[in-house]
């Protein structure tokens, strides 16, 4: 049995507990997670029996890749009949179907079309169930994330000797992207949240790194234009100001997320102290990374630590633009569960992969901090990020 079939089987067991008839997977990343292919179409996993991948394009490639029966999507007029036939039993005789799907990402227009195609069906929100299943990574998933970490480190080390005073931020970003791609980065990073977009990283220097933006993170960056208002802009790197290098890398679909702070010369003492506190927060969080620790508690403990250091006003952003988390799950998407934030009661469990990113934002001066990615193990954690710790002085 393949890993994809094992995932389908787990989902089927959970659907039986809830009395669902099946799960219609519409989100590309989830389709890949459950069948190993990402062609245009929909994956239907009945509570009993074999999954079916209804594909518009490319049918040929889906047949080569998918751990499911593959059929042409065909006419929407027959979709309801085909799903009922796949479910069988009482549902085929006309009883209402209870079908789950990912309502967190499903467009309303498509939802309305599905309601028309399956009149009388009761639609359930299965998005949380999928996201909770994806929290626990398989050994192969972890292997891909480890490789992404190795690639990210190699790219950073290749670029550092070329950083110079007067270099534009976007030039540094271009050098990093070039090195990542040469080493196998897929060039695509995914987010699940609506209207959120993700590029290779947030690379910015000095005041521009502290410019707030729509991206749900502690550092924004000006970007090159209001149509893409994040990350590197045209500002020139100056001596003595923090250079925030928050980069990701994707290998075989899986992401690593890491941040390092660089500086040409030396940092201002206040920024250096804030960076030191960021490392202290990370070390204190590491000490509690073990199965059973509640995700929320790690965030609350970090808040206490930052308050004691009298840096609360700068933690994870500034003013109204502060974000309310310390870290996040990572895998096929960068905003996975669990989130280290208030209200997230998930106990850490072996197989979770979490990026932890304590940072401090100083408007007009810059952002300092660090981010590493960790695997929760049976007896603690494994640090997956391999880039050298500490501020890099150039």
TrEMBL record:
Residues annotated as transmembrane: none
Domain of life: Bacteria
SUPFAM superfamilies assigned: Creatinase/aminopeptidase, Creatinase/prolidase N-terminal domain
Domain Creatinase N-terminal: 7-136
Domain named Peptidase M24: residues: 144-378
Pfam families assigned: Creatinase_N, Peptidase_M24
The protein's name: M24 family metallopeptidase
Organism: Paenibacillus plantarum
């Amino acid at each position: 049995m393949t890993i994809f079939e094992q995932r389908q089987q787990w989902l089927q067991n959970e659907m039986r507990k809830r009395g669902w008839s099946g799960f219609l997977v519409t989100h590309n990343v989830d389709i890949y997670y459950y069948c190993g292919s990402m062609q245009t179409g929909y994956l239907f996993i009945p509570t009993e029996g074999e999954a079916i991948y209804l594909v518009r394009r490319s049918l040929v490639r889906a047949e080569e890749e998918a751990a499911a029966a593959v059929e042409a999507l065909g006419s929407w007029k027959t979709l309801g009949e085909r799903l009922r036939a796949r479910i069988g039993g009482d549902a085929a005789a006309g009883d209402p179907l209870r079908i789950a799907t990912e309502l967190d990402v499903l467009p309303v227009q498509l939802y309305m079309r599905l309601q028309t195609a399956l009149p009388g069906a009761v639609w359930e929100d299965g998005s949380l169930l999928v996201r909770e299943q994806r929290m626990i990574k398989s050994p192969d998933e972890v292997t891909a994330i480890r490789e992404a970490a190795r690639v990210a480190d190699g790219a950073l080390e290749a670029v550092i000797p070329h950083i110079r005073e007067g270099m534009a931020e976007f030039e540094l970003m271009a050098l990093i992207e070039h090195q990542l791609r040469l080493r196998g980065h897929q060039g695509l990073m995914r987010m699940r949240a609506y209207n959120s977009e993700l590029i290779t990283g947030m690379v910015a220097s000095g005041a521009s790194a502290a410019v707030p933006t729509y991206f749900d993170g502690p550092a924004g960056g000006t970007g090159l234009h209001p149509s893409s208002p994040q990350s590197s802009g045209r500002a020139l790197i100056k001596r003595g100001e923090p250079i925030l290098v928050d980069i990701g890398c994707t290998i075989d679909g899986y992401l690593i997320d890491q941040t390092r702070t660089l500086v040409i010369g030396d940092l201002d003492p206040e920024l250096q102290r804030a960076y030191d506190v960021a490392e202290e927060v990370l070390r204190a969080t590491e000490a509690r990374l073990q199965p059973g620790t509640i995700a929320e508690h790690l965030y609350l403990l970090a808040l206490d630590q930052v308050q004691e250091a009298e840096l609360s006003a700068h933690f994870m952003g500034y003013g109204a633009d502060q974000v309310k988390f310390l870290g996040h799950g990572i895998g096929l998407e960068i905003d996975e569960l669990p989130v280290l934030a208030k209200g997230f009661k998930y106990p850490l469990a072996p197989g979770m992969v979490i990026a932890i990113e304590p940072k401090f934002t100083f408007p007009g001066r810059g952002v300092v901090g660090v981010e590493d990615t960790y695997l929760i193990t049976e007896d603690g954690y494994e640090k997956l990020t391999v880039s050298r710790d500490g501020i890099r002085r150039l």
